[in-house]
């Protein structure tokens, strides 16, 4: 488990403590909101089906993620309740215990 000095910790417990995370493909929200970043390590998430430019970018940048863990049922932010915060698989695994997350894999019913 990462210690308190881990560079990825920036007070996320205020909005992620006890959250439910579900693994799913990333989907762009709109023309203005077409990518997100991991709440911990800032790895980029993009939707390759959003546009041919996005698909090309994802293909040219193998570090860009196309799926990850989306927070479900949290506080409503900008009118959005689910899928506002995204977490990459390595950070989800490393921080699950510390943040007391319920982590759901594809096909699991809540």
Please, could you describe this protein's structure?
This protein is an alpha+beta fold and 110 residues long. The chain has one domain (18-104). It has helices at 13-16, 52-60, 89-99; strands spanning 20-25, 35-37, 44-46, 67-72, 86-87, 102-104. The strands form two sheets. It has a four-stranded mixed sheet. Strands 2-3 form a two-stranded antiparallel ribbon. It is globular and about 40 Å long.
Report a brief summary of the structure.
With 110 residues, the protein is an alpha+beta fold.
What are the salient characteristics of this protein?
four-stranded mixed beta sheet; two-stranded antiparallel sheet; globular; 110 residues; single chain; alpha+beta
Spans of 5+ residues with little confidence (pLDDT < 50)?
Answer: none
* Spatial strand sequence of the major β-sheet: 5-4-1-6
Helix-strand category: alpha+beta
* Average residue-wise pLDDT: 91
Taken as a percent bin, the fraction of beta residues is 15-25%
Number of domains: 1
SS elements, strand count: 6
Mind describing the biggest β-sheet? 4 strands, mixed
Total helical elements: 3
For the termini, the CA-CA separation is: 26 Å
Q: SSE order in H/E notation?
A: HEEEHEEHE
Bin the helical content.
Answer: 10-25%
Shape: globular
Radius of gyration: 14 Å
């Amino acid at each position: 488990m990462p210690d308190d000095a881990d560079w990825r910790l920036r007070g996320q417990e205020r909005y992620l403590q006890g959250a439910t995370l579900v693994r799913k493909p990333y989907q762009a929200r709109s023309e203005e909101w077409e990518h997100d970043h991991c709440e911990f390590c800032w790895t980029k998430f993009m939707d390759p089906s959003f546009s041919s430019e996005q698909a090309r970018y994802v293909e040219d940048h193998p570090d860009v993620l196309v799926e990850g863990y989306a927070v479900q049922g949290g506080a409503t932010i900008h009118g959005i309740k689910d899928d506002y915060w995204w977490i990459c698989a390595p950070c989800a695994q490393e921080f699950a215990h510390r943040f007391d997350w319920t982590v759901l894999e594809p096909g699991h019913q809540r």
